[in-house]
Design goal:
Blueprint lengths: L9 H6 L1 E4 L2 E5 H8 L3 H10 L9 E3 L2 H8 L17 E3 L1 H10 L3 H53 L29
Antiparallel strand pairs: 1-2, 2-4, 3-4
Helix pairs in contact: 2-3, 5-6
Length: about 190
């Protein structure tokens, strides 16, 4: 099956990935919807195989985490997450382990789509880190040159001090023009 002919659109998988406890996770209800099974059935399969899911593969959300995640969940016909008693979050490794429990063809195809999405997100994160590093290098390289330019601009932006009148008495009249007239003697 080609990447384009995936049974689940990558956008739908991307919308189901949350950041909880510093890890990218998918909730049990979102996985169940993708696998087209009930959340209860998914959680029962996980419970029966508890040894396959250590705490770094799957963990239960606290009430506070449920409330925080529920702000980002878009209602889609499933009961509201904030009213759920127990909500489990699966890391990328936990999702991969689920593929060994669910044997249907749909589960295989959904898992492939999920793994591709996790890889895509990881690549995006790496490229953002690389871009950030390169910007920091350029900033430090040209920092001194730009500092000189910015200092010159700041100096030009300083308004000139207003002209102050000197202290003391000053005549502000124009000087009178005196002319000498000749007096004729007769």
């Amino acid at each position: 099956m080609s990447e384009d002919a995936s049974i689940v659109p990558m956008e739908r998988v991307e919308q189901a990935i949350y950041l909880v406890r510093g890890q990218k996770v998918m909730l049990d209800r979102d996985l169940a919807a993708l696998y087209d099974v009930e959340t209860r059935v998914l959680n029962q399969a996980v419970k029966r195989n508890g040894k396959r899911f250590p705490s770094d593969f799957m963990f239960e959300l606290t009430r506070e985490e449920i409330m925080r995640v529920s702000q980002f969940v878009i209602p889609s016909g499933v009961p509201d997450i904030k009213y759920s008693n127990r909500v489990f979050a699966f890391t990328e490794q936990g999702v991969a382990m689920l593929s060994s429990l669910l044997k249907s063809q749909r589960a295989v195809e959904v898992n492939i789509a999920i793994m591709r999405t996790f890889v895509k997100l990881r690549r995006m994160l790496e490229s953002n880190e690389e871009l950030s590093r390169r910007l920091s290098e350029l900033e430090s390289k040209y920092d001194e040159q730009f500092r000189m330019v910015f200092d010159a601009i700041r100096e030009l932006m300083i308004p000139p001090e207003p002209k102050k009148n000197p202290i003391g008495f000053h005549v502000r009249e124009e000087q009178a023009v005196y002319t000498v007239r000749e007096i004729s003697t007769k």
